[in-house]
Design brief:
By secondary structure, the chain is α+β, with helices and mostly antiparallel strands. It has one domain (about 10-229): Chloramphenicol Acetyltransferase (2-Layer Sandwich), CATH 3.30.559.10. About 25% of the residues lie in helices and about 25% in strands. The protein has helices at about 20-35, 95-110, 120-130, 210-220, 220-229; strands spanning about 10-15, 45-55, 65, 65-70, 75-80, 150-155, 185, 190-195, 200-210. Strands 1, 2, 5, 6, 7, 8 and 9 form a 7-stranded mixed β-sheet that branches. Strands 3-4 form a two-stranded antiparallel sheet. The chain is globular, with a radius of gyration of 19 Å. The two termini are about 40 Å apart. The model has no long low-confidence stretch (mean pLDDT about 75). It holds the Pfam family Transferase.
């Protein structure tokens, strides 16, 4: 644990449904971090950690027999790439599609049944049961060095259609509590919003948590601005 933590902040971005979220977050966040002086990511490796819903892999689905199962069944998948492989110059850079394809392939492989299966979930549960001091189990990725990115997705949760009755109705906006972190992306449930021209648009809302200086650079990044506009 470091003695001091940098000032961090979070910001909401809206992305239309034809844009790919995780890949762009990873590239643009890495670009923003790499531009800091002195550059913290020179000749280093960045890791993307994403939560995987293991219900289907355990045969749980929404119900187990006749009893509804409400428990959280998630495990983390981790990928690693050198920062040099993510240094796309600009929106017109011809290496951007190839970079996205490579990152997408690596992410898919990390989340495959070969990597995360019922056996791997059982092994993790066994490890926890056999460990006397649970504090000794710590994430393998770096939480504090402005190098890695953790992504969790609520995109598949149909929360906007939940009806809380006549008094409350359905949710208008869904947000997590405010949290300061360096390197977290939260993909909110699919939503609809009104654009400046009055037209309705559907897509996802992404909350990005970073160091304040990195988030300021990312908000002005050409590639990121092109994705969210």
């Amino acid at each position: 644990m470091p003695n001091e933590f940098p000032s961090c902040f979070s910001k909401l971005f809206r992305i239309s449904k034809d844009k790919i979220e995780k890949l762009k977050q990873r590239i643009t966040i890495t670009r923003a971090r790499a531009r800091r002086t002195p550059a913290p990511l020179a000749n280093s490796t960045t890791q993307l950690v994403s939560a995987v819903n293991c219900r289907q892999r355990l045969g749980l689905g929404s119900k187990t027999g006749s009893v509804t199962y409400f428990g959280n069944v998630a495990q983390y998948a981790m990928t690693a790439l050198s920062t040099s492989e993510l240094q796309v110059v600009d929106v017109a850079d011809e290496t951007l599609p190839l970079c996205l394809i490579k990152v997408s392939s690596i992410i898919s492989a990390s989340q495959s049944v070969d990597q995360i299966s019922s056996d791997s979930v059982a092994e993790l549960c066994s490890l926890v049961n056999r460990t006397e001091d649970l504090k000794s189990i710590f994430p393998e990725w770096d939480l504090f060095s402005s190098r890695d990115l953790t992504v969790t997705s609520w995109n598949g949760l149909d929360i906007y259609n939940l009806d809380f009755g006549e008094a409350l109705g359905k949710p208008k906006h869904i947000r997590p509590p405010y949290v300061e972190a360096d390197g977290v992306g939260m993909i909110m449930p699919r939503a609809q919003w009104t654009r400046c021209d009055g037209k309705q648009e559907s897509g996802v809302e992404v909350i990005v948590m970073l160091r304040r200086d990195d988030l300021a650079v990312m908000s002005e990044d050409d590639i990121w601005v092109n994705f969210i506009n």
